[in-house]
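Weekly puzzle thread! Below is a chain. First person to post its structure in token form gets bragging rights.
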Amino acid sequence: MQSNIKIINVLDPLTISRGRRAVFFHRRIKTAFVLILSATIWMTGCNGRIGPSLRDPNTGPGGGGSGKAPAERRLDIGSPLEIKYAGVEFKVTRAVITEAEDSSGAQADITLSVVNPLEVDTRIAEGQWQLRLGGGPAYTQPFYLQISARETKEVNVNFAVPENATWSGGQLSLDEKGKEPAAISLDRVPEKTDAYPVRLASGGMAVTKDPAMTFTIKEATLDLDGIGTRAAVGKRYLNLTVSVNEHDPGPGEFLPEFFRLLVNGEPASPENTGEKTTVEAQSTQDYTMSFLIPQDAADIALEVGKPDVQKTAKIPIDMRSK
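Winning reply:
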């Protein structure tokens, strides 16, 4: 008897699993390729319109910035632009107005060389710079200065100004509360705004005894500045340099005790003096003083000597210009 036998070809399960994975991987590659191709065609059709949205809006086509430099307007400094305040000399060496890149305004930067020619340190504690352009409003900036005797330094002052500001009609001034300002024109030949300092007659002399001393006025000026300070509004400084000759032997004398200014008969002490305050025996010493007086004072005399030990003497001072 012959039996019917069916032979069944059974594949290995591992072989079947590998085949399914190959088909699945092929389909994923095909799908990714279709997506990439579609995106490329779409971007080409947009003609690059999506490109700029991915860049900085301030960046130009070449990617190197807008290419527009901030506009600058420099002040042409011809004649020296100088002011003096509290005996300190300020000179403008550079001035430029620079527009902001975002058109929000501009900044005026002024550089000044500052020289203290005095023999004493000077401090401006509550100063204020003021800038006016073309008759417009005043732009202000607080200012503090500490400068040693015979020192030179550089300071920078800046002001926020309108975008279209120019130096035309510019004026720069410095002041302190309640004190006389100092100002300079920036765009034309500086004009002398006042007659100060006023040089007064010198040479007046007086002699005292016990101790025996000779006092001679070498220099006398009326000014807005004293030694390291500025006059209050309505006041002026009488600056005197007096040569003192001590004739007697001995330990020398302390000079501040020997001077008083008589203003309409009323005595006043010097507000500031020079550094050299003593005179040695049988020698000569120059002594510098600053007296603050009313602007219209006329009856002025320098009293010399020590009232409690000797008879004093007076040297009249003519307040008319020399």
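Puzzle host: Confirmed. Bonus trivia for everyone else. Residues 13-45 form the longest helix (33 residues).
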